[in-house]
């Protein structure tokens, strides 16, 4: 049995059953992505929400190619030596956003430790290209850690994304095991620096659970993120891409995700998206709207 089939055969709780729906919007988005030679994290990371999101005409674009220089134990994205930077890619992403008629675009990337700035300039050009073709569209970027480079972070922030997202992914104890190229406190500091450099740009981060962490460790990580000024938080269940990846240690129940959401709101996050199938960009547009509604109420 191949790895994908073996994982598919694992017994998952009923609440993790995914409804496959490939309607006209799904097929159109798939054709658009292929036609413009783009990559999406929806496909590359085997996101379980691809059918729902594409059918609702939302997608998370993955720039800087599809080959990552990191080798995280939980991630399905291909690793190896990346291809040279495609400087026309920002325009193609902007064109896809225009064709799809998006109100909120999410852009992420593979990690590119082979590039001096980690790909920050391509992020900045993509933000500006989207704005040029789609002036009413808000832009959220999900960035790598740029190896802690403040200059790279400033390059992205100077392009004025509407949301700056960087995922912490897991708790401090497991971080070096599942993200050997990452550093827990480097990620926390990146988010803290973003708030210091551009305090008016909301920051966001995400945690995937089920890799062996304790509830206390999740709460500790949430508190570290909040102390760094993070505004928006996503919490979702880890699903093992193949038998060669980190195993699932626990499936959290919907009730447990609701409890974590309540704890996050008590900590002061403006919005917490928490659930078994939640991923970093899941319902991203709704998160922006919720944050704006809260801000409007607080400001009278």
How would you describe the overall organization of this protein?
- The protein has 12 helices and 7 strands.
- With 300 residues, the protein is of the alpha/beta class.
- It has one domain (3-298): Aldolase class I (TIM Barrel, Alpha-Beta Barrel).
- Strands 1-2-3-4-5-6-7 form a 7-stranded parallel beta sheet, with helices on both faces.
- Strand 1, helix 5 (89-100) and strand 2 form a beta-alpha-beta unit.
- Helix 7 packs across helix 9 (184-197).
- The longest helix has 15 residues, at 284-298.
- It is globular, with a radius of gyration of 18 Å.
- The protein starts with a helix and ends with a helix.
- 44% of the residues are buried.
Uncertain runs: 1-9
* SSE succession: HHHHEHEHEHEHHEHEHEH
Question: CATH homologous superfamily - what is it?
Answer: Aldolase class I
Could you give the order of strands across the largest sheet?
1-2-3-4-5-6-7
The total beta strand count reads 7
Basic shape: globular
Rg computed from alpha carbons, rounded to a whole number of angstroms: 18 Å
CATH class: Alpha Beta
Major β-sheet annotation: 7 strands, parallel
Alpha-beta classification: alpha/beta
Beta percentage is 5-15%
Could you tell me the mean pLDDT?
85
- Name given to the CATH architecture: Alpha-Beta Barrel
Number of domains: 1
Number of continuous helical runs: 12
Q: Estimate the helix proportion, in percent.
A: 40-55%
Ends distance: 60 Å
What is the CATH topology descriptor?
Answer: TIM Barrel
Q: Determine the oligomeric state from the structure.
A: single chain
Q: What's the topology here?
A:
Elements: H1 3-8, H2 24-35, H3 41-44, H4 50-55, E1 60-63, H5 89-100, E2 104-109, H6 120-133, E3 138-142, H7 150-157, E4 163-165, H8 172-178, H9 184-197, E5 203-209, H10 215-227, E6 232-237, H11 254-267, E7 271-275, H12 284-298
Parallel strand pairs: 1-2, 2-3, 3-4, 4-5, 5-6, 6-7
Helix pairs in contact: 5-6, 6-7, 7-9, 10-11
């Amino acid at each position: 049995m191949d790895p994908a089939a073996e994982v598919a055969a694992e017994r998952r709780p009923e609440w993790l059953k995914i409804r496959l729906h490939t309607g006209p919007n799904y097929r159109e988005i798939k054709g658009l992505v292929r036609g413009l030679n783009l990559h999406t994290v929806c496909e590359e990371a085997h996101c379980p929400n691809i059918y729902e999101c594409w059918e609702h005409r939302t997608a998370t674009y993955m720039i800087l190619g599809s080959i990552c220089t990191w080798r995280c134990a939980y991630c399905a994205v291909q690793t190896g030596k990346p291809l040279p930077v495609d400087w026309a890619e920002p325009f193609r992403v902007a064109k896809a956003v225009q064709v799809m008629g998006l109100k909120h675009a999410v852009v992420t990337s593979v990690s590119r430790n082979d590039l001096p700035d980690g790909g920050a300039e391509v992020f900045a050009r993509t933000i500006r290209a989207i704005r040029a073709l789609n002036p009413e569209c808000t832009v959220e970027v999900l960035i790598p850690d740029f190896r802690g480079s403040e200059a790279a972070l400033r390059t992205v922030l100077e392009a004025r994304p509407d949301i700056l997202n960087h995922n912490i992914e897991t708790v401090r104890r497991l971080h070096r095991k599942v993200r050997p190229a990452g550093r827990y406190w480097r990620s926390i500091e990146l988010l803290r620096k973003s708030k210091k450099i551009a305090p008016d740009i909301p920051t966001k981060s995400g945690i995937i659970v089920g890799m062996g962490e304790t509830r206390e460790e999740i709460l500790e990580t949430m508190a570290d993120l909040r102390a760094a000024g993070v505004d928006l938080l996503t919490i979702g269940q880890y699903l093992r891409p193949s038998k060669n990846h980190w195993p699932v240690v626990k499936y959290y129940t919907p009730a447990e995700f609701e409890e974590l959401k309540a704890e996050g709101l008590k900590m002061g996050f403006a919005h917490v998206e928490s659930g078994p199938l939640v991923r970093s960009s899941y319902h991203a547009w709704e998160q922006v709207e919720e944050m704006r509604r809260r801000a409007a109420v607080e400001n009278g």
